[in-house]
Please model this.
Amino acid sequence: MLCLEVTINGQQRVLAGVAMAETVSASVSVHPGFSQAWIQVEGEIAPTGQPNADAHWLSSSAALGDVVQIRLVESDAPTTPSLSRIDLTVAHTDEIPFVCAFCGKEPKEVERMLASRKAMICRGCLQELQEIASNDDA
Model:
């Protein structure tokens, strides 16, 4: 199957691909104002008879001078992604969990979740957002 191989400084970090993938993407984002860079490898899968789900292979910071290589390869043994959903409007019967739209944690990993029609947020992220908003008001 067609996969994305991501290496950082010559070390393979992930071989992203899955037979039921709709998309697989790898990106490097630079945030100059914060002196930060991030590498993301993610996609969307279409499980048979189920609604689409999010696939996540890698989220990693990058440092100045890092060499990031993204290569298109053929492989029968890709890295297994973690799967999740954030849209509560999709009815499903598989075991793919709903997760916090901010931190990606499952309900069993957090104290409590709040849900809207289209996403969930855990209590910890909600408290962080409240703190940020309070600090901005001050």
Residues 6 and 70 are 5 Å apart (CA to CA). The mean pLDDT is 89. Helices lie at 123-137. The two ends are 53 Å apart (CA to CA).
